[in-house]
Amino acid sequence: MLKRQVNDIELDYEDHGKGQVLLMLHGLGSTKKDWDAQVPFFSKTHRVITVDLRGHGESTKPKDAYGVKLMTEDVKQLLDQLNIKKATLVGFSMGGAIAFEMAAKHPEYLENLVIVNSGPDFNAMGQIGKDLLQNRTHFLETQGLEILSKEISFNMFPEDHQIDLRNAFETRCKNNDYNAYYKSFVTLMDWGLGDQLKDIKTPTLVIASDMDYTPVSFKQDYVNRMQNASLVVIKNSRHGVVLDQPDAFNLELQKFLEA
Predict the structure, then answer these.
(1) H-helix or E-strand containing 246?
(2) Which residues contact 219 (CB under 8 A, 6 or more apart)?
(3) Beta carbons of 13 and 39 less than 8 angstroms apart
(4) Maximum CA pair distance of the chain?
């Protein structure tokens, strides 16, 4: 277990392998364990860093200080502390928002950008976003985090053979601090890049699942608005593609890194 002080908090992280850096950013309500299927694969050829974002896992859980912009500054300071000048950022879901923000605000740090089942404007997702914000906050306030964790985990891993994935993700999710989860969620849903998206020049791979919460067309639309981005779709996968189709995901990421 490794710790670094950034922005008056401690970030917990792991550091494996040598070579060009892959910094992997997990999703809302989860931890660096989202990347358990990627670390052994990519650490053979890269230096792979996984981190618990503020409010998550073993990192500090502040009372009020949350938001994508603040989490992005945490990531920048972590890279500075580790004396890393360039990295490929791989962001899943909420981690994708942070990776996008990093590409917009601190592009000099990025070798490549990889966005996994995420988007550049959580605050402008139309009815899907409005429903998600309303339904999830209502669910949290009326039924609590433990029941919400069960619901989210089942939706991500509904098949019988996915029971171990479902149980593990449910445990990670329900172990969250309620306040940290709530504030991470509402600040995420208030974030967006807007017109800054078109200015991102970093080579970008967007990985989408064919059964994600948002359709493939949603990802294709923002890929079309970027200067240097491509889209790949992984079949028979839901939101947690890094977990439910790790071999297919690893292959697509490897191909992108080698191109």
Answers:
(1) helix 246-258
(2) 119, 206, 208, 231
(3) no
(4) 49
3-state secondary structure 190-218: CCECHHHHHHCCCCEEEEEECCCCCCHHH
Task: Check residue 8 and give left, alpha or beta (phi > 0: left; psi -120 to 50: alpha).
Answer: left
Check residue 129 and give its pLDDT. Answer: 84
Inter-residue contact 196 to 171 (CB < 8 Å)? no
**Residue 236, CB-side half-sphere exposure with 13 Å CA sphere:** 6
Q: Residue 40: left if φ>0, alpha if ψ -120 to 50, beta else—which one?
A: alpha
pLDDT digits (tens, 9 = 90+) for 142-165: 999 999 999 999 999 999 999 999
CATH of 2-122+194-258, one of 3.40.630.30, 1.20.1560.10, 1.10.443.10, 3.40.50.1820: 3.40.50.1820
Structure tokens that stand for 246 in this block: 């790790």
What pLDDT does 112 receive? Answer: 98
231: left (phi over 0), alpha (psi -120 to 50) or beta: beta
The token duo for 222 is 């923002």
Which of 32-36, 76-80, 92-96, 126-130 is predicted least confidently?
A: 126-130
pTM of model > 0.90? yes
The continuous run of DSSP H or E covering 226 comes out as none
Instruction: Give the pLDDT confidence score for residue 33 in this predicted structure.
Output: 97
